[in-house]
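Summary of Year 1 activities. Much of the first year was spent building the evaluation harness for sequence design. The harness presents a backbone, in tokenized form, and records the residue chosen at every position. We chose the following record to illustrate the format because it has been used consistently in internal testing since the harness was completed.
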């Protein structure tokens, strides 16, 4: 059952750039134990994206959604890593179209160009006019500032304290589970034995993008981009001998793909259609149908903010 947590919103703050707009009360839904999602109201979405000058967003006509794509069938995947560490995952889909005027518009556009625009890709399969590709891009992690710390404390205090981090779109903070749970077993033994310990929490940021592309005039062209901003962290811990010298020091990285283990973000913001590949395909198809030679893709708008209490959750987000 979904549980509600009410948070009073005094402002909405954007990551790019740091801007403040007014807001009213809003609710978080607990979608699974310890994981919470907030959907901004239409008014808040308008305020947030209206001030986001570094990431242009567009008003999306949604009347055609649900009328173009009947089914997507994945038939090919590729992956590459660029020199700067950016990861691109390419997914190629066959599109089954619905029987509608919106779908006919797209198919007519494909037919008008298909005879003259075909090519063999380096991977050895045909690319033809109108082919749909979804590109999921993960930009490199960027270390940010320390956002919380706990000074030298005994076990009893560390077992009762939590870390806090500010929301990005909403006012207020969210909290971790108890800090003691993020110390190694050896350090916990030190603390149980009466020694003191401290911890520092530092954020990492990663931008994920989903780009809807159509093969047009001999190459794949981008028509729609959806976004997700992800926040991870590292935990630096120390235990001290009775004389104040350092007994143990350790750093744990709760980030994607570290030492063979991936961790989920503790906090994330995503645009309206980021988690719906069919909707991304439909916006992409429609933009191709009405404006195949557009110079820049349509950008999705920020609409959701999420967080989790367990900051050491192993796994990856669903993309």
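For this record, the design step produced the sequence shown next.
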């Amino acid at each position: 059952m979904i549980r509600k947590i009410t948070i009073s919103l005094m402002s909405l703050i954007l990551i790019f750039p740091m801007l403040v707009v007014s807001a009213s009360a809003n609710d978080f839904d607990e979608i699974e134990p310890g994981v919470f999602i907030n959907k901004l109201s239409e008014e808040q979405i308008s305020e947030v994206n209206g001030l986001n000058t570094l990431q242009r967003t567009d008003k999306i006509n949604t009347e055609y959604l649900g009328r173009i794509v009947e089914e997507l069938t994945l038939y090919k995947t590729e992956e590459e890593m660029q020199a700067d560490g950016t990861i691109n995952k390419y997914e190629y889909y066959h599109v089954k179209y619905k029987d509608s005027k919106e779908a006919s518009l797209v198919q007519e556009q494909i037919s008008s160009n298909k005879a003259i625009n075909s090519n063999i890709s380096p991977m050895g399969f045909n690319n033809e006019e109108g082919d749909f590709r979804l590109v999921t891009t993960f930009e490199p992690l960027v270390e940010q500032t320390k956002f919380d710390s706990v000074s030298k404390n005994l076990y009893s205090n560390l077992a009762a304290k939590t870390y806090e981090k500010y929301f990005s779109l909403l006012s207020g903070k969210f909290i971790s589970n108890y800090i003691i749970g993020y110390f190694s077993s050896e350090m916990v033994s030190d603390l149980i034995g009466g020694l003191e310990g401290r911890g520092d929490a530092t954020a990492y940021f990663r931008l994920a993008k989903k780009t809807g592309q159509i093969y047009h005039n001999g190459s794949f062209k981008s028509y729609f981009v959806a976004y997700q901003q992800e926040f991870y962290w590292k935990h630096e811990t120390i235990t001290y001998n009775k004389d104040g010298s350092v007994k143990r020091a350790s750093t744990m990285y709760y980030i994607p793909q570290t030492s063979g283990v991936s961790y989920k973000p503790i906090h994330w913001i995503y645009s309206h259609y980021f988690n719906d590949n069919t909707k991304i395909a439909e916006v992409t198809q429609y933009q191709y149908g009405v404006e195949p030679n557009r110079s820049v893709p349509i950008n999705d708008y920020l609409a959701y903010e999420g967080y989790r209490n367990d900051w050491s959750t192993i796994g990856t987000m669903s993309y």
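Residues 1-26 have pLDDT under 50 and may be disordered. Quantitative recovery figures across the full test set are reported in Table 2.
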